[in-house]
Structures are given as structure tokens and as C-alpha cells.
Amino acid sequence: MDLHQLRVFQAAVKNGGFTRAGAALHLSQSTVSQHIGQLEHELGCSLFLRVGKRVVVSEAGTLLLQYTEKIFRDLKNAEMAVRELSALKRGTVRLGVGPTTLTYRLPQVLADYKRRFPEIELIVLSGNTEFLLGAMQSQNLDLAVVMQTDVAPKGLFVTSLGSEELVVVLNQDHPLARKTSLEPADLSALRFILYEKNTAMQSLIDRYFELLNITPHITMEVENNEAIKSLVRAGLGASILPLCAVAQRSSSTQLRVLRVNGMPLTRNLALVSVDAEILPNAIRELASILVTTLGRTARKRAKSI
Predict the structure, then answer these.
(1) Quick one: three-class SS letters along 49-107?
(2) Against a cut of 0.90, is the pTM above it?
């Protein structure tokens, strides 16, 4: 079993078949089949199940894929670590982060990091928690800032970054905007512009409404905070947003930010990294900066607006 065989196997899994794996690796379909056959012979088990013209990954293949991904991840990290030791300090660090955190809390942090590591190419990928965790497990990211989930994802190390407050946002001309805080029953009268279903953020908000014993009237599902704020400013509904998205006066013009009396809503953020004993210095440094910066700001007591 060698690295080339494992790379061919990984490509066959990722591309859903031998022909497409061959195209991705610039190999013939027969060559891919030969490599897979040799690997299966050495391991003494089938890595794929042939179903008609399709191939489906077997249980043994699924297990081997987990180890294969770890092997190639460790190889990449080893290369970066050796380059750093040789003072070359070149390479790529791939960070995944939610759009809210990226827009409102990370620009200066990432700018400072780039000044410290000018030779490191920093690639930032934005998306929701589900997308970023999938990208981490597929080795497409080195670090990700996500909403913390109840179940730790396999093969990943999770560091808590603390909590972040979510608030109700209204148009300043809404009748309820005159209040200093809302009662749970007030939410029943609102039309909400919220996030897409089956995302970590919307699931959190859904659980909050269940806790309040309220069935919300949802009129729109939008994933972009700036779009949501524009719609709320136009009087098309209310929303629930992270406080950092409306904390600055310039961004909250025509918006009224309110809390529900006695029922605060928070989300927990986490930094996800690969579960490896040794990480390149550039990745460790970025992880340390994110833990320090986001952890500190999350612990600050939010002020009323």
C-alpha cells in the first residue's frame, strides 16, 4: 500500500466512480481499477461494492477513507512545518468562518495576521456551520469558526470561544419599538425575516421559540445579515440577529434593538481544527489569535443600544 494507491482510492470515493477519478487524476479508467484492485488484494477486502454500473463505497472503504484523509492532512502539515523550520515560512492557511463573524469581527484580526505572516497565503471561505464542518472533514480547510454543536464532529478538535448574544431587531417606527424590552407574548404579533431552515442558526432560533411556547409568523427566509437588515429597515418584518451585526450606530440606522425580558438568547461559537498532535506554526498562530480575540470579545458584556 503506497501513497499513490491511496490518492487514487481517495479520488475514486470523492468523484463517485473510477472513470471520473481517472479524469481528475489524468489516468485511464483501467489504471484506476488496477490500483484499486491491488489495494483490495493487499488489504484482503473489498473497498467498493459493484452495483450494476455503479460503485458504492463499502464499510471497509469508508474506514480506510478516514485514515487516508488523515494521512494526507498530516503530510501537508509536515511540509509546512519543515518549511517553517527552514525559515521559508511559505504555504497556505485555509480558514472557514460564518459570514457574521467574518464581516463584523474578523477584518482587523486577519489584517494583523497577514502583517505577521506576509509569505503565508491566507484563504478565507465563508459559509454556514454545516458547510464549514463538511469542508473541514474533506480537508478543504485548516481551521473554522462555527456555531458549537451538541455532538463533536469526528476527526476534529473543538475549542470553545464563548457565547454571543442574539437580539430582536425592529424597524424604529414599529409600535413595539417604543418599548425598552419585549415580553415573550410580543413576539407572537411580529412577522419575522429569519434564516434558512436546517441551518444551525435557524435551529437555535426555532428552539428558542419552542422554549417561549410561540409559533412565529415567518414571512421570509434570508441567509445574508445585511439583506435582512435592509428588509427590516423597509418595514417588511422583524428579525433575530447577532448583536455584533447591529452594534455599530452606522449599521443600525432606522433599526431598534430589543431583548426579551428575562429570556436572553445566545449562541456558542467554537474554533474547529484538525485533531493532530503537530500543526504548522502558521496554523497554530492563527488559531491562538482567534481564540484570544473572539473569546475575549464574546465574554464582554453587551451594552444596550
Answers:
(1) EEECCEEEECHHHHHHHHHHHHHHHHHHHHHHHHHHHCCCCCEEEEEEECHHHHHHHCH
(2) no
